[in-house]
């Protein structure tokens, strides 16, 4: 709860030509919002355990502070928040809560917007190398999985599966 004597948060602010506000809290955590949402700077935002900018909002029903993520607040203001869908950061940057970087998508589409994992051995999403196998290269695009002798073959198969899947998604079929 914000009491009458509680000071407003102090941020280091910079504004880009396109209207992006970059603000840094006292923990040196950088976050980005659009000009339309500059009134949200009256709250103290810090990264939660998942790395998203969040604040504590007092809940009278629960009688404790409930975490509220910055990108959810902005998505609600935009009118795109849907309890059955996910808010996706298009550029994969959790700190970028600019309006043009947020979209409401299904979990399937959100999962497609992921980068390389730490375990990736090829530098390409969905293609990996298995040691000590006659066909060491693996291509994966769920539910599909196949094994190949060369990286090029695995990459070509993965790209074919992704193209088929994207076509199904565009046609509304999951």
Can you put this structure into words, describing what you see?
- This protein has helices spanning 70-78, 107-112, 151-170; strands spanning 12-15, 21-24, 30-33, 46-47, 53-59, 64-69, 86-89, 102-105, 127-129, 137-141, 144-148.
- The chain has three helices and eleven strands.
- Helix content is 20%, strand content 28%.
The share of residues in extended strands comes to 25-35%
Q: Gyration radius, to the nearest Å?
A: 21 Å
The helix fraction, in percent, is: 10-25%
Shape: elongated
Order of helices and strands: EEEEEEHEEHEEEH
Poorly predicted runs: none
Q: What is the number of E strands?
A: 11
Derived from helix and strand composition plus strand pairing, the structural class reads alpha+beta
Overall pLDDT level = 85
Helices, by number, come to: 3
Biggest β-sheet description = 3 strands, antiparallel
Strand order of the largest sheet: 1-2-3
N- to C-terminal distance:
43 Å
Give me some keywords for this one.
174 residues; alpha+beta; single chain; 11 strands; three-stranded antiparallel β-sheet
Structure summary:
By secondary structure, the protein is α+β, with helices and mostly antiparallel strands. 20% of the residues lie in helices and 28% in strands. The chain has three helices and eleven strands.
Could you outline the blueprint of secondary structure elements for this entry?
Blueprint: E1 12-15, E2 21-24, E3 30-33, E4 46-47, E5 53-59, E6 64-69, H1 70-78, E7 86-89, E8 102-105, H2 107-112, E9 127-129, E10 137-141, E11 144-148, H3 151-170
Antiparallel strand pairs: 1-2, 2-3, 4-5, 5-6, 7-8, 9-10, 10-11
């Amino acid at each position: 709860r914000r009491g009458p004597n509680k000071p407003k948060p102090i941020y280091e602010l910079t504004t880009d030509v396109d209207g992006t506000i970059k603000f840094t809290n006292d923990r040196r955590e950088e976050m980005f919002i659009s000009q339309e949402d500059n009134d949200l700077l009256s709250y103290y935002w810090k990264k939660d355990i998942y790395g998203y900018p969040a604040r504590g909002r007092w809940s009278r029903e629960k009688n404790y502070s409930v975490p509220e993520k910055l990108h959810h607040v902005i998505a609600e203001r935009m009118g795109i928040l849907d309890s059955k869908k996910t808010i996706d950061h298009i550029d994969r940057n959790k700190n970028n809560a600019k309006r043009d970087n947020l979209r409401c998508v299904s979990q399937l589409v959100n999962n497609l917007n992921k980068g390389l994992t730490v375990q990736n051995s090829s530098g390409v999403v969905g293609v990996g190398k298995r040691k000590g196998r006659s066909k060491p290269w693996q291509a994966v695009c769920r539910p599909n999985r196949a094994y190949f002798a060369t990286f090029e073959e695995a990459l070509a198969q993965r790209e074919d599966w992704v193209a088929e899947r994207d076509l199904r998604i565009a046609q509304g079929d999951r």
